């Protein structure tokens, strides 16, 4: 972790420890520099990172303010960290249904930008929140990039393993969402009835070099899931 | 519009005109500087803006690449522009159901950070896509900020009016989503059956100074709507 990332984490902790609310003003730059004992350029980079993450907003000539949405228990759709962090007050568990090496379907090959005879890891899991079904997840990993998975790894956070175990850098992702009715199979896994509502999310995750490595399809139990997005306006 | 914003728009047009696809490489910095006749600092700011908007991604030591999700007809949940731009191949029309000045409910007052005896504009509309219902929208505007609305304005793009007519600067927004079943009233407006699935989105829009000015609740017709989010990883 670079210095400015570390300081950003500390400022986030400061906001949490002081229970600062949306609109509360942070100390001025000079104070922050002194408090964390860093240069102006470092503190500026830390604040820019926190602005991108939706933790603060900066008003020119006026200061730096806390940005914090007010609702608890919402899953962030913009976080690439998986939802463990959003739901840390809850117990999240995982049941692994399948883990195989397969040849990709046309859909998977297209989304991962690979050929029909390349290998992919296919992982099917059900995630639980406090013992209730949260979602059914089917993920396909390009085996040329994610070279090794086993049952133990996919029982825990796969992304943690990808970062720490494989040392890969996760970059941007494209999410496609729609709402529909549960199929019989999905309803079975989620313990709901066929025809009930679902949120269905397809995500293509890319490395920082732009290569897609994970195509994932998640079907959420609508009774257990709610979502938050913190959006910025870059269009003015 | 500032110079770098203008150049960013021109680079976007260049990508579109040349039908560049995800992963295609842009000309190197020096070429872009010459092509658009601007300084290095301007072109760098333009590219940073385009990266924030999800139009390009930059790979250190390797270049600038086009980032473009592959699916058409998806509504961007991160755009504060309204969905007219995402759906420009479709005909979007609006039916105004209600336009009133009212006192806010507790929920509205909380989300707009105003008092119970402040005034809000309450706007209820149904939006149509190619003649089919797309969504039911109920929005509440803090009248101290959005000082004037009339039926003509709310028949068109309210955000366009807020920017161009009132000269306000729209900043960040917080979106809260969940999936549920349509109530009888919602089903009536959308021409669907009670109990069918819906995506329900609440959004709090803020000015760049952090002041919330619009609290909006949208219920989407699941048969006519699909969504895209382009996410970045700021967590590494």
Description:
The structure is a homodimer of 236-residue chains. Helices cover 27% and strands 34% of the residues of chain A. In chain A, a hairpin with a 4-residue loop joins strand 8 (197-207) and strand 9. In chain A, helix 1 packs across helix 3. The first copy, chain A, contains seven helices and ten strands. Chain A has helices spanning 3-17, 29-36, 40-52, 106-112, 151-155, 158-165, 184-190; strands at residues 56-59, 63-66, 75-76, 92-102, 120-129, 132-142, 170-181, 197-207, 212-221, 227-231. The radius of gyration of chain A is 20 Å and the shape is globular. Chains A and B meet through strand 7, strand 8 and strand 10 of A and strand 7, strand 8 and strand 10 of B. Chains A, B: Residues 1-69 form the HTH gntR-type domain. Chains A, B: This is GntR family transcriptional regulator. Chains A, B: Keywords: DNA-binding, Transcription, Transcription regulation.
């Amino acid at each position: 972790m670079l210095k400015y990332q570390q300081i950003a984490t500390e400022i986030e902790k400061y906001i949490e420890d002081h229970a600062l609310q949306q609109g509360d003003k942070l100390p001025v730059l000079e104070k922050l520099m002194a408090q964390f004992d860093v240069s102006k350029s470092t503190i500026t980079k830390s604040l820019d990172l926190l602005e991108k993450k939706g933790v603060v907003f900066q008003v020119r000539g006026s200061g730096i303010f806390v940005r914090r949405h007010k609702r608890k228990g919402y899953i962030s759709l913009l976080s690439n960290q998986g939802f463990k962090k959003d739901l840390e007050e809850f117990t999240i568990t995982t049941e692994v249904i399948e883990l195989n090496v397969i040849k990709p379907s046309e859909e998977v090959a297209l989304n991962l930008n690979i050929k029909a005879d390349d290998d992919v890891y296919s992982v099917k899991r059900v995630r639980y929140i406090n013992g209730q079904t949260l979602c059914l997840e089917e993920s396909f990993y390009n085996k040329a990039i994610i070279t090794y998975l086993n049952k133990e790894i996919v029982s825990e956070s796969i992304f943690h393993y990808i970062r720490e175990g494989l040392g890969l850098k996760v970059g941007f992702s494209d999410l496609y969402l729609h709402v529909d009715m549960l199929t019989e199979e999905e309803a079975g896994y989620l313990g709901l009835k066929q025809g009930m509502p679902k949120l269905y999310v397809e995500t293509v995750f890319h490395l920082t070099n732009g290569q897609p490595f994970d195509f994932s399809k998640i079907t959420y139990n609508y009774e257990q899931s709610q979502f938050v997005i913190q959006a910025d306006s870059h269009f003015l």
